Amino acid sequence: MDREPPKEILDHLKKWKINSAVLRFFHVLFLIIIIVTSVLVASRISLPINNFDEINWLAVIVAISTGLFGGLDLGSKSNSMRRAWRVLNSAVIRYKEDPTFTINDLMKAYDDGENTIGDVNAKI
Predict the structure, then answer these.
(1) Is residue 70 included in any domain, yes or no?
(2) Separation in Å, CA 97 to CA 16, 89, 93
(3) DSSP string computed for 13-51
(4) Structural element, H or E, at residue 86
(5) Residue 7 lies in a domain
(6) In whole angstroms, how far apart are CA 107 and each of 10, 18, 59, 75?
(7) Residue 6: inside a domain, yes or no?
(8) How confident is the model over 46-91, as pLDDT tens digits?
(9) Eight-state DSSP code of residue 6
(10) Are 24 and 77 in contact (CB under 8 A)?
(11) Which structural domain, as residue segments, surrounds residue 23?
(12) Assigned domain for 103 exists
């Protein structure tokens, strides 16, 4: 049996997967920026960048990246998105293949996924 789930469910499944990947990308990007710029500042490596004081600029970049990294909690949000996607993806597969899995079961999986994602919690 191969029933097609509602388009809205499939749209959310796609969005959650994309959102998870984007959040993970920025999570890793900020982490790399933090590590690289922290090492450069700590080692006092001077880079030929016009006449600016490179170390001060790198320190600002470290501070901003660290604030965004910790304050936005991108790792947790990415993990929540991926968990929600897994719940809904599993339900979509069951809905398509198992005639006893109802639209109400599918909607419950969607609700569970939304609850897993939760709200955005900015930490200051």
Answers:
(1) yes
(2) 22, 12, 6
(3) HHHHHHHHHHHHHHHHHHHHHHHHHHHHHHHT-----TT
(4) helix 74-97
(5) no
(6) 12, 21, 48, 27
(7) no
(8) 556 555 577 788 888 899 988 888 888 888 889 999 999 999 999 9
(9) P
(10) no
(11) 16-117
(12) yes
